[in-house]
Amino acid sequence: MAGWILKSADPEMTLRMAPDSIKTIGRSARAEFIVDAALVSRLHCRLTADASQQLLVEDLESTNGIFVNGDKVERAMLKAGDTLSVGRVDFSVEYA
Length: 96
What we know:
The protein is mainly β. It contains no helices and eleven strands. It has strands at 4-9, 12-17, 21-26, 33-34, 45-49, 55-59, 66-68, 71-73, 75-78, 83-86, 89-95. The strands form two sheets. The chain has a six-stranded antiparallel sheet, with no helix packed on it. Strands 4-3-5-6-9 form a five-stranded mixed sheet, with no helix packed on it. A hairpin with a 2-residue loop joins strand 7 and strand 8 (71-73). The protein is globular and about 30 Å long. The mean pLDDT is 96.
């Protein structure tokens, strides 16, 4: 099944997003993807994968914000090859 994959090296983790899914990233148990790392808010950001193979990331009023390829953004369309930074965790974005 095709979908988005976000990988980080430190801490090592792989997040998978199926088409037509919405997931949150954060430190709390309320987040679908729990990232227990420095500078990550309880509910940090939302990822939305739509049926047209697009992946949107939106900041959920986190304390430290989100960064795409080093630029601070409130929301952005991600593409394969991008780097999403949440707190001190960098995720490489792939579509497979």
